[in-house]
Amino acid sequence: MSKNNLIQNATIVAITPQVIVLELCTHESCGTCQAKKMCASGAVSRKVTVVNDSMPHEIGQTVELSISRSMGLWATLLAYFFPVVLVVAVLFICQAFTVSEILSGVVTLIMVGLYFLILRLFRDKISSEITITIL
What we know:
Layout: E1 5-15, E2 19-24, H1 40-43, E3 47-51, E4 62-68, H2 69-96, H3 101-121, H4 123-129, E5 133-134
Antiparallel strand pairs: 1-2, 1-4, 2-3, 4-5
Helix pairs in contact: 2-3
């Protein structure tokens, strides 16, 4: 295991010639928790699609996924940090021009919506740069 990679266990749920669909195993400590039925993290099922690496895999098989730390950081910045910075910047700009609070909120929501629309439009380019590999 490299210090420069993030490792996560996943279970294969579907295999096609092009992609492998995996479900992330995020419940390592949930087996002993008494409140797991009430826990929000226990109810979430996250799926990841990875390009098929033509290695022999079976549905139900547990595999390890790897992503470089720099790509994980880049994905986190795109998904969380930049939208928060955008919200704060747009709110400050709107308040500097003494725009009403309601209009400031609407403009902020529109800008964040446009940001995620642009991310959606460039998802193929982004997903080609952020690669997740099966170990």
